[in-house]
TrEMBL record:
The chain crosses the membrane at residues 22-45, 57-80, 100-133, 145-168. It is a multi-pass membrane protein. It is found in: Endoplasmic reticulum membrane. InterPro entries: DER1, Rhomboid-like_sf. Its main location: endoplasmic reticulum. Coiled coil: none annotated. Keywords: Endoplasmic reticulum, Membrane, Transmembrane, Transmembrane helix. This is Derlin. It comes from Cladophialophora chaetospira. Residues 232-244 have a biased composition (Polar residues). May be involved in the degradation of misfolded endoplasmic reticulum (ER) luminal proteins. One of its GO terms (biological process) is response to stress. One of its GO terms (cellular component) is endoplasmic reticulum membrane. Belongs to the derlin family.
């Protein structure tokens, strides 16, 4: 194996657990679908297939981890890894073991309800990515990000991405992708804005069982560190993000052709 391959694998295995699981699942599922070994219609979301007997419940997960084809396969994996690991390791929101898992579960549920049940979307990968980027942008307000050839405030990054999707994929694609912003903002409102400025209670708490599963109370967790086996936080780029555009034209009609741009 080449030195570059070793470095990639070392970086992958040093990633925090939720990110590593998401990216590994994305790689396996997307490789099987885009190689033709698995029919894509078996993994995307369809409401009638969920509310039937027996329900095809795997679609609730598989519809969040299907990448684009071609070069988008690499881009989607890389930028999902970048933003997800950046949040899981460095975000001040996720200070306890399992907090990031709770965040992912909440935003994915909100995306499924708003995008799948309300808007009839079939693939939620771009929405989940946009949720991560929205939260990343809120955590890094005041910094700069690269969007295509422009440098913009990082907090404008999600909106620039939606504009690009609107231009390249049309209003429906942009509206479906925007469910990621809705989900991430709803999480921000319920866990930070409402409790801080309105004096309300934060009802989105990580269950004790989840905390224990992710190692609460063990010596591996000190504040928010995941132990020495994981990459130090400063290795995850936070200062800037490098932009890209990707197209995913497919016969399923679940995603727009213009989707998102990425991190470092």
């Amino acid at each position: 194996m080449s030195g570059g391959g070793v470095d990639i694998m070392d970086r992958f295995w040093s990633a925090p657990p939720v990110t590593r699981t998401i990216v590994a699942a994305m790689f396996v599922e997307s490789a099987l679908v885009h190689s033709g070994l698995v029919n894509g219609m078996r993994v995307i979301y369809f409401t009638p297939f969920i509310f039937k007997f027996p329900p095809e419940l795997w679609r609730l997960l598989s519809s969040f981890i299907l990448t684009g084809g071609g070069f988008n396969f690499v881009f989607d994996l890389y930028f999902m890894f970048t933003y997800s690991s950046g949040l899981e390791l460095n975000s001040p929101r996720f200070t306890q073991p399992g907090d990031f898992f709770t965040y992912v579960f909440f935003v994915a549920t909100a995306i499924w309800i708003s995008g799948g049940l309300v808007l009839g979307a079939h693939i939620f990968t771009s929405s989940l990515m946009l949720a991560f980027i929205y939260t990343f942008a809120q955590d890094n307000r005041g910094k700069k990000a690269h969007f295509v050839i422009l440098q913009i405030p990082v907090e404008l990054l999600p909106w620039a991405m939606l504009t690009l999707t609107l231009i390249m994929g049309g209003p429906q694609a942009a509206l479906q992708q925007a469910t990621g912003v809705f989900a991430a903002h709803l999480y921000d409102f319920l866990t930070r804005l409402y409790p801080t400025f309105q004096g309300g209670r934060n009802y989105i708490q990580t269950p004790a069982a989840i905390k224990r599963y992710f190692g609460a109370g063990t010596s591996a967790y000190n504040h928010k560190a995941y132990g020495t086996s994981f990459r130090p936080a400063q290795n995850v780029p936070q200062q800037q993000s490098r932009g890209w555009t990707s197209g995913f034209s497919n016969s399923w009609g679940g995603r727009g052709s213009g989707r998102r741009l990425g991190g470092d």
